[in-house]
Every structure is written in C-alpha cells, then in structure tokens.
Amino acid sequence: MDIKDQVIAIIAEQAMLEPQDVTPQSTPEDLGIDSMGLVESIFAIEEAFDISIPFNANDPGASDFDISSVATIIAGIERLKAEQG
Amino acid sequence: MKRVVITGAGTINALGHNVPDTLEAMREGVCGIGPLSFRDVERLQIQIGGQVRGFDAEGRYNRQQISLYDRFTLFTLAAAREAIEQSGLTFSGELSAKAGVVLGTAGGGVSTWDDNYRAVYEEGKNRVHPFVVPKLMNNAAASHVSMEWNLKGPSFTVSTACASSNHAMAQAFAMVRSGMAPAMITGGSESMLCFGGVKAWEGLRVMSRDACRPFSANRNGMVQGEGAGIFVFEEMEHARRRGAEILCEVIGFAMTSDASDIVMPSKAGAARAIAGALEDGRINREEVGYINAHGTGTAANDKTECAAVADTFGPQADKLMISSTKSMHGHLIGGTGAVELLACIMALRDGVIAPTIGYEEPDPECALDVVPNTAREAKVNVALSNAFAFGGMNAVLALRKV
Questions:
Q1: What is the pLDDT of residues B88-113, one digit of tens each?
Q2: Stretch B362-387: mean pLDDT
Q3: Confidence of residue B13 (pLDDT cuts 50, 70, 90)
Q4: Is the confidence at residue A61, as pLDDT, over 80?
Q5: Of the residues B17, B144, B238, B294, which is catalytic?
Q6: Considering CB atoms only, which of A36, A43, A62 is closest to B263?
Q7: Which chain A positions have a beta carbon within 8 Å of B219's beta carbon?
C-alpha cells in the first residue's frame, strides 16, 4: 500500500466509512471526524509511518502540517517522510 | 441549616510551600511554571510544568513514613498541617468522632504506579515493595490525614478529574451545613508530574509547550502543576464559641453533569453549575465580584467558560472580575480547585484579586475582565470558584466575606 492508500484506510476506519468513500478532496468535517477523532487519526498516522506530526488540538491551523483535507494530510506525511530521509 | 466558615488553610504548590508565600506570589503575578525535572523528561515533547521545588520530605517525615507516602500524600500532609494548626482545632472526644476528611485527587499515587511499572516492565524485576498498594490508592492521602489528626467521622476521596477538589469541598460543606459534622478537613492534591503522568496528557494534544495563557487569543493549551490545598471547614457557631479566626464563609455550591461528551466542555452544563451555586447560596448576581475561573488555557474551555458566565450573569458579567491562577501555578488536575480557593479567600479577606498572567492578546470570545497580568485591589463580597472536568462533571463553590 502506498502512503495515499494507507492514509485513506486509517481515516476511513476513524470515520467508520469504507475506503472508497474517502477521497483526497474529503475534509475531516465532510467525513464527520471531530477534534478528538482528528487527534486519534494523527496518532494512528504517526504510528503507521513512524513520524512525529506537530499538531496542537487547541489551534489545529497554527501548525505547518495542513490537516484541511485528505490530500493535504498525505502531502504533509510525504514531506515529513522525505525530511526523515 | 448550619452556617459554614473556613478557619484554616494550607497549601504547597509551585508558587509556595505555604499559604502566605502562595498569596504573595499571586499578588505579584509570579509564574511558577518552568522546565520539568525528573527521570526521562528528555523523552517528553512537553517539558514544562508547575513543579514543586525544594520540598524536603526527609526533613519532615521519617524513613518509614516516606516509604509509605506517595508524593500526593506528602503534599497533602504538609498542607493539612498548616491548615489544622491555623484553625487551632485539636480533635478529641465528640469532635474527633464526628469530624472527617473528604479530599479530591484525580490520579492518586501516579508516581508510585510509574516507578513500579518501570521496575517490573522495563527493568524486568519480579518483586515490588510491599507498600505499593497502600501508597498508590486514591484514598491514601485522606487516610493518612485521618490517622495523623484523629479524625474518626466520615472520610473518603472524590475523583472527578479536574473537578475533584471542588466536588470534595462541596461535599464537606454539605456535611457541615447539614449538621452531620461540626468540622471537616477538605481540599485535594495531585502529583502527576512524572514521565508516565505527563506522557499520558501529551497524547491528548492539548498541552502547551511554552506557557499557560488563559483567555489570551494566542493561548495554545494547558500546563500541568502539582501540589495540595487543604482547608478546615467548621460550623460557624462552633468556630465563634472558641474565638477562631474566620477566613471567610462558604455559602453555596452546585454540581452538574453535561451528559454530552467525555472531553469537550458544555456551556449549558457550566452555566447550570454557576446558576445553581448562586441559587443554593441565595446570592444576587450583583453581589458577585470575583470568579476564580477554571481557565485552563485551552481553546475549548476558555471560550465555553466565558460564554457560560456571560449567559448566567447577563449585563453583570461585564462588571465582575474573572481570573485564572492556573497561569501561575499550572493545572493541578484533581487538586486545582483547592489551590484556587486560596485566590477566592485573598479576594474576600484581603481585597486583592489575583491576576491572569501571560495575557497577551484579547480574544473576542473571552471578552470579560480577566484581570490581565497585574493583581488589582477591589472590595469583593462574594466570590465563586469554578471547576469543569473531563467527563462533563462540574462543581462550583460560593464564598462570602465575613
């Protein structure tokens, strides 16, 4: 599974949806993921990819890790993996 | 119904090892939050807290006692000694038989759990110290207070996360008011500042890495603290007969449950608790001059709390002062309401309102007088202390100047 499929699988599980119902354009709100669901998804992504995502639930917009859609989350993970080398 | 007064107060927290030092620090707007110091702290992402520094357990207790006391019990006993000595009470005869101790703590002996899990899991040991259970149990602190001061009445521990102390003090108040006990020792303590304690909170992603800035638009989370606050609640005539110094009167309380979400606070639940305390104490809204806020410095709490206060007080909300002393001593979780009650006593007795420090930018969603950065002199007749816990369990206390 590539990064995109893995992220979609994680987010689909969190949203209790089938992976085909999650698209790169989906936002957490579209999928019914609330702030605690988002924290749980970030945790699952960190565990799956062995990365550390700067995310503060008090101000999700403040971090340079963009969580506004599935596509931006995938891009953020790709960047963190690339930085890891 | 009996009237209930506070005749003794004791504390230990990041601002001071007793009440006078703590109140002096609150008046001066001192920040007790700094770099944490304990084993494996370098593996944490959150490395600040309101840690009690320079606490000398060896100077206060013997070796046997230390092997039996978790840090949350050590803090409780130190604060209880200060409170009970100030009250001048000695517990014997009928007073001893009827007086008890109700304390709050969320985690109890967290560092005892942490140390012993480390020993068996990380170090592979197969034997632990015989006192692990009596040391870590949530009622250990209350039990040691009952033993030390001969309190043989109703004693127990309340655990409602961040509202534990307020629930405990509300319960103690109700027991004295009903005539069930002539005096109760009450308050709470917490000591979660160890690797496992902070790591667990880190997981929630609501902790700040740099400072606790309640109500400030640029706030970015809570900061943990540790310590204890202990009080002597006494029936007013009992206190007057023996000529005790009265710090203030406790006049009402309310407890509510949001029944909605395990972590997100509810405006309605908070507002019902505030309004309930006013009703219980037969308090006119105009009488309330100060509220010690729950004010955790998280995005969610502060705006919900301000909205609840605005809803409950209407136009009067703009006239009262509301501050969060967590900006100075951190969030003591189950012990926080007890240490924060000291700020209410200072407002009523000394006419000094503790500030919300770290305040940098106004937030339109927190548009109340939050006493930013500098303490203020003001005459206050009635003060409230708010606590709104995870799990949606809320407890608000009301105090009056004597």
A1: 999 999 999 999 999 999 999 999 99
A2: 98
A3: very high
A4: no
A5: B294
A6: A36
A7: 58
Distance CA B146, CA B148 (A): 6
Q: Which residue of A has its CA nearest to B214?
A: A58
Q: Could A58 and B203 be called an inter-chain contact, meaning their C-beta atoms sit closer than 8 Å?
A: no
Inform me whether the C-beta atom of residue A56 falls under 8 Å from chain B C-beta atoms: yes
- What ipTM, to 2 d.p.? 0.81
Nearest to B249 by CA among B240, B241, B260: B240
Helix, strand, coil fractions of chain B, as percent rounded to 5: 40, 20, 35
Q: How far apart are CA B297 and CA B217, in angstroms?
A: 10
- What the block records as the tokens of B6 is 């506070």
What pLDDT score was predicted for residue A65? Answer: 87
Please state the rounded mean pLDDT for residues B277-304.
97
- Let me know: does B326 contact B212? Beta carbons within 8 Å: yes
Summarize pLDDT for B241-267 with one digit per residue, the tens: 999 999 999 999 999 999 999 999 999
HSE (side-chain half, CA atoms, 13 Å) at B147: 10
Q: Up-side HSE of residue B322: CA atoms within 13 Å toward CB?
A: 28
Give percent of chain B with pLDDT exceeding 90.
99
Is residue A35 less than 8 Å (CB to CB) from chain B?
yes
Residues of B with CB under 8 A from a CB of A: 45, 203-206, 208, 219-221, 263-264, 298-300
User: Is A23 part of the contact surface with chain B (CB cutoff 8 Å)?
Assistant: no
